[in-house]
């Protein structure tokens, strides 16, 4: 019991002190293992087994694909096409931002990366159209949260590794409709606030793009999710191989079609992708030490029994989990949240007989809400840095978007088929 308290106490204390998450997980696990005399030499084995999993190979490739499509100018061309479709007016450019973020979610799989790509293109354009910087940052941060729901999703890959019965194709299919639903839910308050305050009514004098011309320019970017997801569905390649195909396709578009990527840029993109992937995989590796220590010490079972013993019923427990995960999601990214909490959450889901694919979508939606909920929202931090505004200035705007996402989450809870229908039709369930 002492070692178990030390495990969570040390982890919490190091987070408060600003210790990197990976280091906090590893050190807390080490201290608990050393105190309980479980054998410190078990750590290297757990570090290795934590990342020696085939599905994790997809993560560096999807990160690299996101960097390639960011630099290739796909986002800018998608913005022109979406603008040509929806036109201009109060709130229309904000709608374009959400739609483009959702579409790029079908390429990269990382919320902060999506916020950086979309924010780099849209925040300046929204400013010229009369949107306040804080509002623009709020829209970008919230829209980028749909990234971890719309496949490919790094969070779904991590979930599949930790819950083998929920396969990557099933999770990818299950996240599609809830991801689109979340994006549509965000559009409602964004348009309402824009029209109420007159945002987006300023004409910067640039001509409206022509639909057919902008479509021809954006067609290669529009085809990217078709190539990635269509190839998986047709059985041409696995999710891991799909990530490699995304990289190849992105390089072809950037070098041959758009000619926006020079050969010298490839080295920089490889370095960028390696750094981001290394951070993710180091967290995965050291979280394995933390999880092994928690399981070996028997810490998880008493916590699960305490939650189930509260007598709240399955819906009461679900509300408790929603509140807990949204709060945690304010401080931690989706990968870290899954790695730390899934050993605790999966036994609860199994106790109530919840479908683990549906449960994975719910958890991901909760984490997505946390990614743009102040004070420590990772997506919002990226968009606020681009807009050069303090994160507290977004509270009055982002609150309505949080409410909209909760409505979308409530619909998926009330109607599980929103998540389960597509993977069932495609034969993944």
Automatic annotation (TrEMBL):
Localization, UniProt? Cell inner membrane
InterPro entries assigned: DctM, TRAP_DctM
Q: Which residues form a coiled coil?
A: none
Stretches that traverse the bilayer: 7-35, 47-69, 81-107, 138-162, 168-192, 218-236, 242-261, 273-295, 315-344, 356-377, 397-422
What keywords tag this UniProt record? Cell inner membrane, Cell membrane, Membrane, Transmembrane, Transmembrane helix, Transport
Annotated Gene Ontology cellular components are: plasma membrane
Membrane topology, as annotated, equals:
Multi-pass membrane protein
Name the domain of life. Bacteria
Domain TRAP C4-dicarboxylate transport system permease DctM subunit, which positions?
Answer: 9-418
Q: Name one Pfam family in it.
A: DctM
Sample GO molecular function, one term: transmembrane transporter activity
Task: Cite the PANTHER family for this sequence.
Answer: SIALIC ACID TRAP TRANSPORTER PERMEASE PROTEIN SIAT-RELATED, TRAP TRANSPORTER LARGE PERMEASE PROTEIN
Role, per record: Part of the tripartite ATP-independent periplasmic (TRAP) transport system.
Q: Which family does the record assign?
A: Belongs to the TRAP transporter large permease family.
* Oligomeric and partner information: The complex comprises the extracytoplasmic solute receptor protein and the two transmembrane proteins.
This one is known as TRAP transporter large permease protein
Q: Which organism is it from?
A: Stella humosa
């Amino acid at each position: 019991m002492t070692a178990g308290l030390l495990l969570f106490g040390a982890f919490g204390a190091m987070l408060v002190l600003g210790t990197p998450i990976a280091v906090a997980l590893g050190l807390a696990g080490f201290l608990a293992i050393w105190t309980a005399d479980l054998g410190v030499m078990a750590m290297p084995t757990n570090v290795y087994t934590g990342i020696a999993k085939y599905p994790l190979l997809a993560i560096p490739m999807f990160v690299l694909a996101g960097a390639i499509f960011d630099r290739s100018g796909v986002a800018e061309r998608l913005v022109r096409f979406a603008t040509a479709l929806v036109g201009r007016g109060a709130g229309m450019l904000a709608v374009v931002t959400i739609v483009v973020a959702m579409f790029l979610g079908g390429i990269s799989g990382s919320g902060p990366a999506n916020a950086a790509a979309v924010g780099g293109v849209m925040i300046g354009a929204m400013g010229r159209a009369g949107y306040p910087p804080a509002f623009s940052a709020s829209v970008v941060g919230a829209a980028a949260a749909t990234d971890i729901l719309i496949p490919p999703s790094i969070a779904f890959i991590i979930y599949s590794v930790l819950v083998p019965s929920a396969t990557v194709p099933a999770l990818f299919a299950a996240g599609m409709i809830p991801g689109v639903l979340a994006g549509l839910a965000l559009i409602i308050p964004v348009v309402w606030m824009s029209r109420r305050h007159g945002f987006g009514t300023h004409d910067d004098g640039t001509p409206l793009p022509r639909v057919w011309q902008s479509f021809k320019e954006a067609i290669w970017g529009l085809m990217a999710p078709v190539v990635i997801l269509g190839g998986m569905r047709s059985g041409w390649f696995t999710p891991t191989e799909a990530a490699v195909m995304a990289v190849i396709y992105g390089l072809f578009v950037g070098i041959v079609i758009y000619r926006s990527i020079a050969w010298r840029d490839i080295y920089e993109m490889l370095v960028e992708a390696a750094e981001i992937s290394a951070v993710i995989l180091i967290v995965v590796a050291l979280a394995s030490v933390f999880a092994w220590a928690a399981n070996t010490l028997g810490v998880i079972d008493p916590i699960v029994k305490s939650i189930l013993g509260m007598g709240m019923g399955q819906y009461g427990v679900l509300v408790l989990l929603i509140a807990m995960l949204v709060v945690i999601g304010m401080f931690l990214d989706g990968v870290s949240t899954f790695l730390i909490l899934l050993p605790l959450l999966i036994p609860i889901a199994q106790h109530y007989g919840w479908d683990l694919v549906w449960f994975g979508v719910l958890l991901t939606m909760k984490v997505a809400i946390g990614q743009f909920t102040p004070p420590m929202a990772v997506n919002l931090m990226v968009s606020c840095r681009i807009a050069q505004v303090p994160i507290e200035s977004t509270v009055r705007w982002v609150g309505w978007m949080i409410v909209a996402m909760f409505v979308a989450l409530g619909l998926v809870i009330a109607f599980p088929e929103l998540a389960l229908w597509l993977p069932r039709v495609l034969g993944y369930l």
